[in-house]
Every structure is written in C-alpha cells, then in structure tokens.
Known about the structure:
Layout: E1 4-7, H1 13-24, E2 28-33, H2 37-49, E3 54-58, H3 64-77, E4 83-86, H4 102-127, E5 136-141, H5 145-148, H6 155-175, E6 180-187, H7 194-197, H8 203-207, H9 219-230, E7 241-244
Bound molecules: NADP nicotinamide-adenine-dinucleotide phosphate.
Amino acid sequence: MDRVMVITGASRGIGAATARLAAARGYAVCLNYLHSAGAATSLAGEIRAAGGRALAVAADVAVEAEVAELFRRVDGELGAVTALVNNVGVLETQMRVDQMDAARLNRIFATNITSAFLCAREAVRRMSTRHGGRGGAIVNVSSAASRLGSAGEYVDYAASKGAMDTLTLGLSREVAAEGIRVNAVRPAFIHTDIHASGGEPGRVERIRDSIPMGRGGEPGEVANAILWLLSDEASYATGTFIELAGGK
Ligand code: NAP
C-alpha cells in the first residue's frame, strides 16, 4: 500500500531531516510549515527531483480549521495518510515561571499540544479500522524536557512536552486494537534553530560538558529513530519512548 506521511513543522530542523529520510525510504511526504515557504517548497522540490512525492503545505497547526484543510489537501493530492509525525514545537525567551504571563502560556500550549491532538484526531479518523481505515502509525516529538523540567529556562515548554507524553500513552491504548501504533521520541540538545527562540542560539555548546556523551545531537539522529518507530520493524511497539539526549 502507498505510504503517506504528514510531518508538521518540516521546513527546517528535525522535521526537515525526517521528511528527507522518509522520502528516501519511499514515503510520499506532506511538509507542513508556518512561515518558511521558501525552505519548505525547496525541500519538496529536492524530493521530487530525486523521484519522490512531496507536497509543501502552509498551515498553523494550532488552528483547527487549518489542520482540517491540511489533511483534506493530503487526501486529495497524496492519498490517505498512513503516518503522522507531530513534530511542531516552539519555545520562547528563557525566563522563570514567576515572570510568565497567560498569553505566553496559551501560545505555548496551543502550538505544542493542542496542535498534536488536532493532527492526531484527523489522522485517526483516516487510519483507524474503526472508521474503515487500513491502520497506521503516529510519532510524537516530545522532549527530555518533560522529565528534566527546564528550570530557569522554559518550564512551560517542558510542561507541554509532559502533556505530549501523556497523549502518547493515552492515545496508544485508545487505538491499539484499531491498527494504529502511537509512540514518541524524547530528544534534547539537538543542533537546530529552536534554541535561538529562547534567546540563546549557542545553548547546546554551553550545556555540552554536562551531556554524558559530551556532544549535542544532529537532526538526522532523531529522524532515524522516528523512521524506525513508524516502520514495520517496530510492529509490537506502542506507547513507548525513545530517549535521544546523549545519555542525559
Ligand atoms: P525548529 O528548528 O525551530 O523548527 C520548528 C518547525 O516548526 C519549523 O518548521 C516551523 O515552521 C514549524 N512551526 C512552528 N510553529 C508552527 C505552527 N504553529 N504551525 C506549523 N508549523 C510550525 O525546531 P526543532 O528543533 O527542529 O524542533 C522540532 C521538534 O523537536 C519540536 O517539537 C521541539 O520541541 C522538539 N525538540 C527539539 C529539541 C532540540 O534540541 N532542537 C530538543 C527536544 C525536543 P517555520 O519554519 O515555517 O516557522
């Protein structure tokens, strides 16, 4: 059967690395993005030039109507989704909890966890045997922050990833008998642009000496784990987590 993957936040970082690897493994890929149209469309073009199938779709995945439209476009242009990677995640300027306001908290939770519920809902409606689907797999991109807490940096972000872990556990059990596996990866200290959003682009290098492996990670190292969890090699794995934090 055709394998069709939706990856949220695929214009750069971990999402882009996942899209590249998925296309190389034969998936048709939908690359979702918010602002980086140039990066997303050029990656889609690169995949098509190499003989793959790719579609770049702008959508704010925190907005219900935009998520619904994203999946309708995938239905029409790539076919029924068989794999979802809930990769979108944002953080904001490092600060303590005693400085955070409600507007910031609402932005973080809407983008990091409401989005994952909305995308999972659309995917389950298409994949579940209960709804006439052929099954599929979901990988949620959580973070080691969910167990480390990100004190003094962004406890709000860490808490949204705690919610991602619970979504993974709950949804995995809800749909386990309907042909859908739901797992998560918990990366940390990966070399991407996300750290600049916190106001510290060089954060990984600052922390490096406290990482047991003595280095940060690369987006491709996270993509490898995501592709494995989505593959038939992980056929009995659901509700599980892969730690990708260099031993931290
Ligand atoms: P990144 O380089 O900052 O990329 C974020 C991606 O998300 C971009 O493609 C961005 O699109 C997209 N995006 C942001 N808000 C969106 C929205 N509302 N709707 C649609 N797309 C949106 O991030 P990354 O480091 O690759 O992180 C990917 C995931 O890994 C996140 O969930 C993050 O929490 C998690 N993670 C990362 C690390 C790390 O060290 N890097 C560690 C642990 C977990 P535009 O380019 O269009 O803005």
